[in-house]
Amino acid sequence: MKDAEKLLNENEVAFPPAPPERSKAGLDDIPCRARFQDPEVAAATSMEIAAGIVAYS
After folding, report:
1. How far apart are CA 55 and CA 43, in angstroms?
2. How far apart are the C-alpha atoms of 35 and 41, rounded to whole Å?
3. How far is 46 from 49, CA to CA, in rounded Å?
4. Cα angle 37, 42, 23; round to 5
5. Cβ–Cβ < 8 Å for 19, 12
């Protein structure tokens, strides 16, 4: 990674913006209604995939 940064810097190429650091949070710090359970995420993902397949067909 350092070699890539050095090469970009030598060729005066702008660096892509870095994502912000993830904050540290414990499970107890997140309110119950703000948490997503695995089945909820799976159902939402499946729904989006199915809609994409129907739209593509």
Report:
1. 18
2. 10
3. 5
4. 50
5. no
